[in-house]
Amino acid sequence: MAKKATTVFVCQDCGYESPRWMGQCICGAWNSMVEEKKLGIDEDKRRRAPAQGSAKAVKLSQVESGNYMRIDTGIKELNRVLGGGLVQGSLTLISGEPGIGKSTLIIQAASLIASRLGTVLYVSGEESLEQIKMRADRVCKSMENLYLLAETNMENILKVTEELDPKFLIIDSIQTMFSIDMESAPGSVSQVRYCSNELMRIGKGKNIPIFIVAHVTKSGDLAGPKIIEHLVDCVLIFTGERNRELRILRAYKNRYGTTSEIGAFEMEESGLIEVENLSKSFLEGMEDGVEGSMATAVYEGTRPLLLEVQSLTSPTSIGFARRSAIGVDLSRLNMILAVLDRKAGLSLIDQDVYVNIVGGLKPEGTSIDLAVALAIYSTYKGIAGDRRTLAIGEIGLTGYLRSVQNADKIVKEAERMGFSRIILPKKNAERLASTKNKIDLIGVVSLQEAIEVYNK
What we know:
Blueprint: E1 5-11, E2 17-18, E3 33-39, H1 43-48, E4 70-71, H2 76-82, E5 86-87, E6 91-96, H3 102-117, E7 120-124, H4 129-139, E8 146-150, H5 154-164, E9 168-172, H6 189-206, E10 210-214, H7 227-231, E11 234-240, E12 246-254, E13 262-268, E14 271-274, H8 278-283, E15 293-300, E16 303-315, E17 323-326, H9 330-344, E18 351-357, H10 369-381, E19 389-391, E20 394-395, E21 401-402, H11 407-416, E22 421-425, H12 426-431, E23 440-444, H13 447-455
Parallel strand pairs: 6-10, 6-11, 7-8, 7-9, 9-10, 17-18, 19-22, 22-23
Antiparallel strand pairs: 1-2, 1-3, 4-5, 11-12, 12-13, 13-14, 15-16, 16-18, 20-21
Helix pairs in contact: 9-10, 10-13
C-alpha cells in the first residue's frame, strides 16, 4: 500500500496536530496553526509488524548509578553554566538575539575542544565556509581538527557524521535543517521536530555531545515547537545589550547541573573574553553622591554578584502615574511602592517611577528589594547616595525585612570590593556577628528602620 500525503494543521507553539484549522490551540495560543503535509502510515504493515524486542521492568535498587563523563570546553564561564563541562551524548540548545555572539562563542569552544580531543564538526546552514573561516581567523587560536560543513540536508549531515565520528557536533541552526522524508518546508514544526529527533538519536547512540543553535521570536522566546526544549538536555540563553560589550549566558534548563548559574563575557575584536570579576563590571560606573543610586547584591549559582540599582521619580504629567522597570519585576516594584506608601509614609501616587538594574542583568530572587526601596526614597527626597553603602533584604507586605540566603558570602564579596557598611536584615546580622569582618554590618528589622539608618 503506497503512502499518501495528508494535510494537517500544526501549532507552532506546542506542536499539536489537528486535521482542521483551529483559531485557538489547546495550549491557549491564538492563530498559531500552520498547514503542513504529512505522509500517511501503512496500517496493514504496522499491524503485521512483529514487536521489536521485549520490554522488561527493572528494580530501581538494581540500577547502577555512575558519574557522567564531562568534556572541558576550555572556557571556564561556559563550563560553569553547563555544570562543569559538556556531558558526552548530551544535546544542548543555545539561543539568543541575532548578532549577540552565539556563533562566536560556539566556534571558540569548538576550536579549543578540537585542539585537545580531536575531530569537531561544525555544520552551518546559514553561512558559507568562507564566512565561518573569516570569523575563525579572528577569534580562534587553533583550527586543527576542526571540520566545516555548509549543508542543510539532514541525511547528508548524518552521513558525514558517520564518516568523521566527531568528538563534538554543532548544528547552526536547527531552523535551516530539513529532511527529504518530510514534505514541509525547512523551519516548519514537523521539520524541526524530526531533525531534532534524528540528532538526539545519533548523539545518544554514538555518545557525541551536540550543540544546537536556535532562533528566537520577537518576544525573545525560542522559535519552534516547545517539544524541542523537552527533548534536549540543556537550554542556554545568551543575552546582552548591543550598545554594551557585556554578554550574559544563563541556563534555562539543565539536566546535569543547576539553572541558577550565569556566565559573563565581553565582546571584543578577538572574540568573547571571559569576565571573572563580574561585580567590578557592574559597579565600575557607580558614582558617589548621586541621588537615586544604591548598591545591592544577589547570589547567582555559586558566586555573589554586586549590582547598582538606579531610580528616578518625576511628577506625572497625565492622570495616571507611570511605573517602568528594567531588570526588576514590575509587580514586585508595585508591591515595594505600596509598602513605602503605607509603612514609610512615602506617597508616590502623583509621581512617575523608573527603576533600572545597571548592566542589563535580570536578577532572580528578592534580596534586592531593600536597595530598590532606598533608591526610590533617595531620588524622591533628593538625598545623595553613598557608594560605599550596600543594602540587601526582602521586604514583606508588613514592612518587615526577611533574611536572605548566603549573606556571609555576599559580605565577603562586598568587603573585597571596598564597601564600608551593609544594611541588612537583623537576623542575618546576628548570625554574622561572631565572624570577623572589616565591614560595618547594620541589622534592621523593618523598612522604616532601614530608612532611618540611610538618613544618618
